[in-house]
Design brief:
2 helices
């Protein structure tokens, strides 16, 4: 790999083998599928514009109309672009696409691609991402071609970072020597600030044998925190599964995270760890902090919501709902209930218990909702209301 190059570190021998013949293939096909040898002056120019300390160009969002090879080189369309570095620094070029194909990216110092500076040789549909050090006024050419798969659209992005700019990478990660508590957030710091407006869905993931763990990713400057899904039913499969192996994955290039500068991660990062049981992260006892609707209002059987200060263990949740008749006798009211508890960015939690009667209470009766003793906190901390039942009486309809 040329000095100063990041990314594009393919390992398959065949992919390296055919790149030996790339210069000849590019020379034959540099004008596109016609192979006409288009003059340099007709090559589209990439113009980098200043953005803060860096330089960027409008992305090229176009397509290859033919993808094929003869085992030694490309026989389909080859797109070519010219670029002149407006300043000295580190140039990063990204090539990505969303369909089933294997596209390739080459940077060269000549318009026929004989003098290669960097090449992306990732296999399959993984995006290509290469970087080289350039000097002000340096001319180079960018080639895009398809090796196998379907023709279709691609996105070509350019970024020139100033000399000495830190490479976008993970700086610190949590220690995973011991099983990770199922309710404990994970915090990662990066060498540069993250783009706060990027959509993180699918760009980072926590996988296990049965699928993907749910949760919320939150960006704060150079910090990225994963707030795991808190279990809402016993055996909730969206949460960390204690005792099971999980893999945290940060994809590389355009499939992964983006720095505030526009830079991507050059390498795929995967971290394996075992999940443990929830920990007691909230030392105080959970309390009911709000009730909706107001217990003093005439109650006609609408859904009841209890706001609770800390997460509960869903396996120990057993609310009771009864009608207290005028003579003092009680009759059970059929109902369903749902626990919703989630982290907020910053580490706060929102816990709501919804209790929805299946029928209206009898006329003149008081509706009584009870959370009995033994309503446990998540992680084994003090029980709700220190083990004393919580009772809420709603006024007769």
């Amino acid at each position: 790999m040329p000095a100063g190059t990041q990314g594009g570190r393919g390992t398959a021998f065949l992919r390296r083998f055919y790149l030996i013949f790339l210069a000849a293939a590019l020379a034959a096909c540099a004008g596109g599928s016609s192979g006409s040898g288009t003059p340099v002056e007709d090559v589209p120019s990439i113009v980098l514009q200043p953005k803060g300390d860096a330089w960027e160009a409008a992305p090229e969002n176009t397509r290859l109309t033919k993808v094929s090879n003869n085992g030694l080189g490309y026989t389909g369309e080859i797109d070519r672009y010219e670029l002149v570095a407006p300043a000295t620094g580190r140039l990063q070029v990204s090539l990505s696409w969303d369909h089933d194909a294997n596209f390739d990216l080459v940077l060269a110092s000549d318009d026929l691609g004989k003098l290669r500076l960097a090449d992306g040789i990732e296999n399959g549909s993984d995006p290509e991402y290469v970087g080289i050090d350039v000097v002000s006024g340096q001319q180079l050419f960018v080639f895009v071609a398809g090796w196998t798969g379907d023709p279709g659209p691609y996105l070509l992005e350019f970024l020139l970072l100033p000399p000495g700019a830190p490479l976008f990478d993970i700086e610190t990660a949590p220690p995973f020597d011991d099983p990770w508590p199922a309710d404990l957030p994970m915090t990662f710091t990066f060498t540069t600030e993250l783009d706060p407006d990027q959509d993180l869905d699918g760009r980072v993931s926590v996988l296990h044998g049965g699928g993907e763990t749910a949760g919320t990713w939150c960006v704060d400057g150079r910090t990225l925190t994963f707030y795991p899904h808190l279990p809402e039913v016993a055996g909730d499969k969206k949460a960390f599964l204690p005792g099971q192996l999980h893999v945290l994955e940060f994809p590389r290039a355009a499939k992964g995270l983006r720095a505030a500068t526009g830079e991507y991660l050059s390498e795929l990062t995967g971290i394996a760890f075992y999940a443990g049981e929830p920990a007691d992260l909230w030392p105080a006892a959970p309390q009911v902090t709000a009730v909706t609707p107001s217990p003093a209002a005439s109650y006609k059987g609408e859904a009841i919501t209890l706001a609770i200060s800390e997460p509960l263990d869903p396996a120990a949740l057993a609310p009771q709902l009864v009608s207290v008749l005028p003579g003092g006798a009680t009759a059970p009211l059929p109902f369903r209930f749902q626990l919703a508890q989630t982290y907020l960015c910053g580490g706060g939690v929102e816990v709501r218990l919804l209790v929805a009667p299946s029928q209206a209470p009898p006329a003149g009766s008081v509706t009584r909702l009870t959370l009995p003793a033994g309503t446990a906190a998540l992680g084994g901390g003090p029980e709700l209301n220190h083990g004393t039942p919580v009772t809420v009486d709603f006024a007769p309809p």
